[in-house]
Design goal:
The complex is a heterodimer of chains A (639) and B (117). With 639 residues, chain A is mainly alpha-helical. Helix content of chain A is 73%, strand content 3%. Chain A contains 27 helices and two strands. Chain A starts with a helix and ends with a helix. With 117 residues, chain B is an all-alpha fold. Chain B has a single domain, classed as Helix Hairpins. In chain B, helix 2 (21-41) runs antiparallel to helix 3 and helix 3 (45-70) runs antiparallel to helix 4 (74-104). Chain B is elongated. The chains are: A mainly alpha (639), B mainly alpha (117). Chain A binds chain B through residues 611-612, 614-619, 622-623, 626, and chain B through 36, 39-40, 43, 109-110, 112-117. Chain B: Its EC number is 7.1.1.-. Chain B: Belongs to the complex I subunit 4L family. Chain B: It catalyses: a quinone + NADH + 5 H(+)(in) = a quinol + NAD(+) + 4 H(+)(out). Chain B: NDH-1 is composed of 14 different subunits. Subunits NuoA, H, J, K, L, M, N constitute the membrane sector of the complex. Chain B: This is NADH-quinone oxidoreductase subunit K.
């Protein structure tokens, strides 16, 4: 695998962005879709080739230096790519799921006037995301980190004639800035401590020179985790993600479910040496992950917007991943990133297909009975729902169960939270499924008339993702189920350094097989029971969530309104800052404008007087000139 | 040097030195002041132009006088240059006056007062 082919992986989407972006209104729609999609499919093919070459060459990580980028004093930041197990797995997810979503977008966005702009932004996003995972140091990761934030902003506000959508885009961007500040401080602390940002140097120095629980390492990891909180939507910085659903549905699938929001998890796994040296940070990561998993899942229980339910579900699943990271189950979290990319992308694309058929209706109270009209969408959505609920043998079961098993070893209380969260997950997902696809149609007559299955460009990605959601779990079958867990074996070299740095943390009090069976049985039973509960409530009794106008009990109202977190943030942060800005603005109005206005008036007054001298009469000019010469002569001669 | 029968050999600086330096100074000052007054008082562009030439030549005369009294030939070279440049300047100046005349049908500079606030 030559280096030039590797460079093409991020460069192809960039080329797609440039072509589609520069030629936006002039390239015909057919060509736009082909260019945008081909760029990504080609980088997927290249990623697969790189992966095969990497495995064939004995899984030796290597660095591809491109050029010296920043050299200041002793600090040298090269621009280079790192190819190892982690970056390859991320490459495969990003380009693979990205390709499917591009194909889907051709059908989904076909009627949109900003078709070319949409594909340009999507390609730009993939470029930055690939840069993020390929970079060999924290600074390149930061470029990608900011770039994907920018593209997320652009795509959330894609329909920028709607003020609410623009506000959602701004909210996402600003909340991410808060996290980015933490990330930046983390990078600065790394530079100050290690004098380098290259992963290899930082990690070897950290492993060699620092004790477990060193305050400097704890500071660094906490700062980095603040960045991850913002990007991966964890408490307290999660409120942007549900609002981000304002963007087109393929964007929600690609950016806000499968790839960008997992950047935080990627970063923690990448920095596993540092995190393994900071057990107290890991405690915090685990607690925040668990809290987010439960909190977001409970909000999802009562939402009525099909995309909002999926958004809270994403926040909750990301919480699971962080819970796994907190228990040092890095591979298990990565496993969940992979399976989640499959089934959550599928869920969003399925929701997009439903919204497409329902003429842009997103409220599940107006849906129902769609399974006969949209058979492919229904079947794939069903598979994804089973997968996310953790029912075997679908993908979500293996990954979620592995995380829960590790959490159980680590912290029993968090495990209880995790199981509670998975009960809720199963309930809200089946509630969504039943309300959308079962029962009778509750929409308008016009919508019913218009119902249709989506075109092939949309259903084929659904089917491929459904297959992946069904069988994707088999890359990580645990030993207890007579599997060999290929994924964990593949990723284990990543933790070699962490093991030498903190060997105690990796000595697992390994669970016996019977215990593992017990845990599996509990979580599967819990998921099944809540699925049945949802079936009884929404299919047998045919209950439909009450319209907004109806009075709700106190707790219900709190959950329905997302615990008033948005209102709280609004009162605590947004309003005071706005007031402060207004005060500063009026200060500017009064003082600064007064001074500047005075100068302006003075100058224009002077000009008004002086321009009287410009009469246009040549004689007067000559006279003035002579007078001037005489004055100068007298000055020189007499004084 | 071949003697010219029509013109007896004369030492030019000696001739110039027959007249005292003060007279040259007074003459060239007078010429210069006449030039200034002409430029200031006349409105006809051609006469103003001639007055400017007068001032120029007053300066030339002064240069020549000093040159011979101090036996320094460089001022004479200087004067040649001034005359050559003045010839070019006359050509350009007259061309401008001709164009003004074609456009306005007179050469009164009081008429050209459009360039004002």
């Amino acid at each position: 695998m030559s280096a030039s082919l590797l460079i093409l992986i991020p460069l192809l989407p960039l080329a797609g962005f440039l072509i589609n972006g520069i030629g936006f209104p002039n390239i015909p729609k057919g060509a736009v879709g082909i260019i945008g999609t081909l760029a990504v499919v080609a980088s997927f093919v290249l990623s697969v080739m790189t992966f095969n070459a990497f495995v064939a060459a004995g899984s030796q990580p290597f660095i591809v230096p491109l050029f010296d980028w920043i050299t200041v004093g002793d600090l040298n930041i090269p621009f280079s790519f790192q190819v190892d197990q982690l970056s390859l797995l991320m490459l495969m997810i990003i380009t693979g799921v990205g390709s499917l979503i591009h194909i889907y977008s051709i059908g989904y966005m076909h009627h949109d006037s900003g078709f070319g702009k949409f594909f340009a932004y999507l390609n730009l996003f993939l470029f930055f995301m690939l840069l993020l995972v390929l970079g060999s140091n924290y600074v390149i990761m930061f470029i990608g980190w900011e770039g994907v934030g920018l593209c997320s902003y652009l795509l959330i506000g894609f329909w920028n004639k709607n003020t609410n959508y623009n506000n959602a885009a701004r909210k996402a961007f600003i909340m991410n800035r808060v996290g980015d500040l933490g990330f930046l401080l983390g990078i600065f602390t790394i530079i100050a401590t290690f004098g380098s940002v290259e992963y290899s140097e930082v990690f070897s120095k950290a492993a060699a020179g620092f004790q477990v629980g060193d305050p400097v390492i704890i500071t660094i990891t906490l700062f980095l985790f603040v960045g991850a909180m913002g990007k991966s939507a964890q408490i307290p910085l999660y409120t942007w993600l549900p609002d981000a659903m304002a963007g087109p549905t393929p964007v929600s699938a690609l950016i806000h479910a499968a790839t960008m929001v997992t950047a935080g998890i990627y970063m923690v796994i990448r920095s596993n040496v540092l995190y393994s040296l900071a057990p107290s940070t890991l405690e915090i990561v685990g607690i925040i992950g668990g809290a987010t998993a439960l909190f977001a899942a409970s909000i999802g229980l009562l939402q009525n917007d099909i995309k909002k339910v999926l958004a809270y579900s994403t926040v909750s699943q990301l919480g699971y991943m962080f819970m796994g990271l907190g228990a040092m189950a890095y591979s298990a979290s990565m496993f969940h990133v992979i399976t989640h990319a499959f089934f959550k992308a599928l869920l969003f694309l399925g929701a997009g297909s439903v919204i497409h058929a329902m003429s842009d209706e997103q409220d599940i109270r107006s849906m129902g009975g769609l399974r006969k009209k949209l058979p492919v969408t229904f079947l794939t959505f069903l598979i994804a729902t089973i997968a996310i609920s953790g029912i075997p043998p679908f993908a979500g079961f293996f990954s979620k169960d592995e995380i829960l098993a590790h959490v159980f070893e680590h912290n029993k209380a968090l495990w209880v939270i995790g199981v509670l969260g998975s009960v809720m997950t199963s309930f809200y997902m089946f509630r969504l499924l039943f309300l959308t696809f079962f029962g009778t149609f509750r929409g308008t007559h016009e919508q019913e008339h218009h119902l249709h299955e989506s075109p092939a460009s949309m259903t084929i990605p659904l089917i491929i993702l459904a297959v992946l959601s069904a069988v994707g779990g088999f890359i990580g079958v645990p030993e207890a189920l007579h599997g060999s867990h290929q994924l964990a074996q593949f990723m284990s070299p990543l933790y070699d350094l962490a093991k030498t740095a903190n060997p105690a943390a990796f000595e697992h009090t390994s669970l016996s097989h019977s215990e593992e069976y017990m845990l599996m049985a509990i979580s599967v039973a819990a998921a099944l029971i809540s699925a049945i509960a949802a079936y009884v409530m929404y299919v047998q009794k045919g209950a439909v969530p009450a319209p907004d106008s109806e009075e709700k009990s106190g707790l219900q109202r709190a959950v329905y309104n997302k615990y008033y977190v948005d209102e709280l943030y609004d009162a605590v942060f947004v309003k005071p800052i706005k007031t402060l800005s207004n005060i500063l603005y009026s200060f500017g109005e009064i003082f600064i404008d007064l001074i500047i206005d005075a100068f302006v008036k003075l100058v224009s007054l002077g000009a008004k007087l002086l321009r009287k001298t410009q009469t246009g009469s040549t004689g007067e000019y000559v006279f003035a000139m002579v007078i001037g010469i005489v004055v100068i002569l007298f000055w020189k001669l007499l004084l | 040097m071949i003697p010219n029968p029509m013109m007896p050999e004369v030492n030019i600086p000696a001739v110039i030195q027959h007249i005292p330096l003060q007279s040259y100074l007074i003459l060239s000052t007078l010429l210069f002041v006449i030039g200034i007054i002409g430029v200031l008082t006349r409105r006809n562009a051609i006469i103003i132009f001639m007055s400017i030439e007068l001032m120029l030549n007053a300066a030339n005369l002064l240069l020549i006088a000093f040159s011979s009294y101090r036996s320094d030939p460089s001022a004479q070279v200087f004067v040649f240059f001034i005359m050559a440049v003045a010839a070019a300047e006359v050509a350009v100046g007259l061309a401008i006056i001709v164009m003004i005349y074609r456009n306005t049908r007179n050469t009164d500079i009081g008429f050209l007062n459009k360039l004002k606030w």
